[in-house]
Amino acid sequence: AQSVAQPEDQVNVAEGNPLTVKCTYSVSGNPYLFWYVQYPNRGLQFLLKYITGDNLVKGSYGFEAEFNKSQTSFHLKKPSALVSDSALYFCAVRETGNTPLVFGKGTRLSVIA
Amino acid sequence: DAGVIQSPRHEVTEMGQEVTLRCKPISGHDYLFWYRQTMMRGLELLIYFNNNVPIDDSGMPEDRFSAKMPNASFSTLKIQPSEPRDSAVYFCASKPGQFYTEAFFGQGTRLTVV
Q1: Is the alpha carbon torsion for B113, B55, A97, B101 positive or negative?
Q2: Per-residue pLDDT tens for B32-43?
């Protein structure tokens, strides 16, 4: 069965500093990996995905993620954090093309001015 | 497109009452998913449909929960009778049929059962 782990419930970072939100996954075949962001009282918004190809994926709002097959990780990164990046971030995995996403528990990012 | 539309945004009901949550997916999307979000369990898949047909309802917690998709533009999630432990945010999401596309989420319905 597929699963996702986000080891940190909360990440705090100062504005302007780089940020990393961690994600590891477990699937039996090739992983299809996604990051979503949730702002207060809103639905989930898609940030980026890895399907195949380049291990570094660029997405919305300056975010990027690096796929590492040997470490089964897909960490979300941004070179310079903004206060407006403060939100709940979810990593998700899908084992085949059209099966539902399986989500991690989420990591709350707080960017402090 | 207006995106995935859910109604109501908030629902407060008394224990034992029937609750119906509604979802209008994005036009042309072949897949529709219902998720539930709680602090304790995070985001859980309840059920999903492909071309209006339920594919997997193994996430539906009890027989009190039922979901329908009578046509491509409408789905409902019904809880009867409702219980306080059903309090959560319920999300609907839809996805095109092409492989590896992302799902698009509605803004959710916050359900409170008192």
Answers
A1: negative
A2: 999 999 998 999
